Amino acid sequence: MEKILNYLESSRESFLTQLYELLRIPSVSALPEHSSDIRKAVEWVAARLSRLGFEAKVYETSGHPLVFAQWTKNPDKPTVLFYGHVDVQPVDPVEEWQSPPFEPTVRDGNLYCRGASDDKGQLYTHIAAVEAWLATSGSLPVNVKFLIESEEEIGSPSLPAWIREHRELLTADVVVISDTAQFAPDYPSLCTGLRGIASFEIEVRTAEADLHSGSFGGAVPNAIQVLTRIISQLHDASGRVNIPGFYDDVLEPSDEEKDSWKLLPFNEHEFVKSAGVKATWGEPDRTIFERIWTRPTLEIVGIAGGYQGKGHKGIVPARALAKGSARLVPKQDPSHVLRVIGNRLRELAPSYADVEFRCGHGTPAVSIPTNSAWVRAARSALEKGFGKSPVFIREGGSISIVTTFVRDLQLPCLLLGFGLPDDRIHSPNEKFSLRDFERGMRTSAILLNEITSHRTGT
Ligand code: BES
Ligand code: MN
Ligand code: MN
Fold this sequence. Notes:
This protein is of the alpha+beta class. The protein has helices at 2-10, 12-23, 35-51, 120-137, 159-165, 223-232, 255-262, 268-275, 288-294, 334-348, 373-386, 402-408, 434-453, and strands at residues 55-59, 66-71, 79-85, 105-107, 110-112, 143-149, 174-177, 189-194, 196-205, 211-212, 297-305, 315-316, 319-328, 354-363, 366-367, 391-395, 413-417, 431-433. The strands form four sheets. Strands 1, 2, 3, 6, 7, 8, 15, 16 and 17 form a nine-stranded mixed β-sheet that branches. One manganese (II) ion binds at residues 89, 118, 153, 425-426.
């Protein structure tokens, strides 16, 4: 292991140079004008893995492409499947970035760039780890496959079908993903649960066209007011979702799990500060961990309607639109949740408005059992890589395809988070700590070794 760790240390600059190349590609999956950049990022990964000796290929899907690569020269050893994503979130508001969003910039030991933490920097730790093994020993201690996609940030719409058609490629013993965060700085973390998500849109129409607010205002309904009245009734004043059936099936965490979270350092004041809010909000009888990790939520994420241009316009808007999503927890069914939301919206719709409810994509939550040999291997790798034993946490975010790995492929998954809660993923000035980049590379390299020795007794 010594030689491998030394290699990682002495190649630090070259790894950064490589990662910068990937980071400079503005691979925003949500924006159609970036589809050629998405392809460039996928091809970049394929080329990188080919050069390391992997059999790597870019595959087309019904959406954006992906890369699948493998090195399987150890027939009697376990197979590790690394999953990650090269697509990133849009950068706006771009004026809030202190350095250009796609120009990797180091300040105070942090690497700033869109995708630095989510997920290019984190997935690169896996690439660096295999490079270190191959460069120093000419071989890997296990078989390794990479599945790197480019639609994660839009809910991985094409990947489940691709996986069904290429199931044989994905035979593996364990999936390793670094796309989550540490609990706090110097708290290496194994994530045991991701929330699911179900998204939707509500469109309200009250007239054929906008009307003059002097000639009609006060005597005709206003679409924006109808919409906001509806959405204001989706929660009660305390923050609980006020929709019949919304909390059906919610699985409460065990007392043991809740007790283990009591040992995590948590300061509500710090939490409020790090979020940049004035106060916490949400279900009053729930801790912050519960609110984020084990309770479902309903959020309105965007709203549009009426006049948004300069100055003022005297209209009664005819149309208004809201986008929303629910974060889901174990045992909740996305289609059930969408159904009860839709039912409630229709109930709240006044007779003088057309209210249309459109369902978006849905992914159930996942939970990862902690009593496996894989988890023991990951614990010991994190312990050696970070010099501190890891904690078990959950995340409130979602990684859609993990559900497919767990449910359809029945693969154990390891979620090793190298990021930090204040990495500002999805926000301006996203960063990744260089120290965590290094510790992530070390941990990934050690993990391959730990998995060989933890093989029996799964
Ligand atoms: N890496 C995140 C998931 C995540 C978020 C992990 C927060 C830990 C903390 C991932 O790239 C992501 O953003 N997922 C989306 C999925 C959605 C588009 C279906 C999310 O959670 O919103
Ligand atoms: Mn991610
Ligand atoms: Mn993301």
